[in-house]
Design a protein that fits this description.
By secondary structure, the protein is mostly helical. The protein is 62% helix and 0% strand. The mean pLDDT is 81.
């Protein structure tokens, strides 16, 4: 019985933490806030942050929703006021090209460097075939009978 109560309490707590509680307006506000980065914490969304600024921004989102604004209008307002950094997924434009394609470019450059390095390493370790004269000299140094293929 205790385990069932704990499981119920845990599921309610997790549901509350993920915004599945409250009215549809609360869920909508949480969904919008999840798209915005906390300017104080920088690694959390406004929905998850407990910073004072995040609380104020959630309040602003709620007020704009109550005023009939759409999600796109709210996100555009936040972007205009706080810049591209507030958006977890900034729009593709000239100023965000490096942000969108930089990681792929770094990965491609890293793979190219790896390929060149491996090719150079392989070519350094390849031994050219010996000429018949070099083979005879090596066999003589090693004391190998050329016809039998064994040492003396």
């Amino acid at each position: 019985m205790r385990t069932a109560l704990r499981a119920l309490a845990l599921s309610l707590a997790l549901g509350y933490a993920h915004g599945t509680h409250g009215s549809p307006e609360d869920r909508r506000m949480t969904e919008i806030a999840a798209e915005l980065r906390c300017l104080v914490c920088q690694n959390e969304s406004i929905a998850a942050s407990r910073a004072d600024l995040a609380v104020d921004l959630r309040r602003q989102i709620r007020q704009q929703l109550d005023a009939g604004k759409t999600e796109a209008e709210i996100l555009a307002y936040m972007e205009a006021r706080y810049g591209d950094f507030i958006l977890y997924r900034p729009r593709l434009k000239a100023t965000t090209l490096l942000l969108w394609f930089g990681p792929a470019a770094l990965l491609a450059a890293g793979l190219a460097v790896l390929a060149v390095t491996l090719r150079r390493r392989k070519s350094r370790h390849e031994r050219p075939a010996l000429t018949p004269q070099e083979r005879q000299a090596a066999d003589a140094l090693l004391g190998v009978d050329a016809e039998k293929g064994s040492g003396t």
